[in-house]
Amino acid sequence: GFLFSGTPGVGKTTLGKELASRAGMSYINVGDMAKEGELYDGFDEEYDCPILDEDRVIDELEDKMSEGGVIVDYHGCDFFPERWFHIVFVLRTENSFLYDRLESRGYKGKKLQDNIQCEIFQTLYEEAVLSYREEIVHQLPSNTPEDLERNLDQIMQWIEQWMKDNN
User: How does DSSP classify residue 76?
Assistant: First the structure.
């Protein structure tokens, strides 16, 4: 499986859906799955959002992940079992692009500032490096449509090579 991680607004969903389509893989957006299955454990008043029940998410995903060929999209990554992923991509976006993307999603105040700071301090990249073997964690720039195409081409080449090496 693949994991796409990164601050909200960096392009995980766009890249994940397009890659799934090109590579014939399944795509799972953990936020959408949690919403559909109400996989929550309370509500965070400060950030005005539900709190993910990580154990229930793992239970929900376990069978799908054991089949392989799955792209998982979620901003956090430290609670997924290491065995699920062959590679972890952390998408990175320059603040000027990210600010506009988050603002257009209705983020404001503390939620907007904290997400921008999360990107500045590479919080999710560090989380990924601490959660998985460093050699499987890769950063991808995600600012422009050209970055998207380059990332797709690069990942498709990686998949082809992995298939040759492992079959």
Answer: -
**Could you report the per-residue pLDDT of 17-40, keeping only the tens digit for each?**
999 999 999 999 999 999 999 999
**Residue 127 contacts by C-beta under 8 Å, 6 or more apart in sequence?**
5, 76, 77, 78
Instruction: List, in order, residues 6 or more apart from 67 with CB less than 8 Å away.
Output: none
- Contacts made by residues 93-98, CB under 8 angstroms, sequence distance 24+: 93/6, 93/7, 93/9, 93/10, 93/11, 93/119, 93/141, 93/142, 93/143, 94/143, 95/119, 95/120, 97/143, 98/7, 98/9, 98/10
Location of structure tokens 């990175």: 92
pTM value? 0.95
Q: Which of 38, 3, 39 is nearest to 19 (CA)?
A: 3
To which residue do tokens 């498709």 refer? Answer: 156
> 3-class DSSP state for residue 28?
strand
Distance CA 9, CA 14 (A): 10
DSSP bridge partners of 146? none
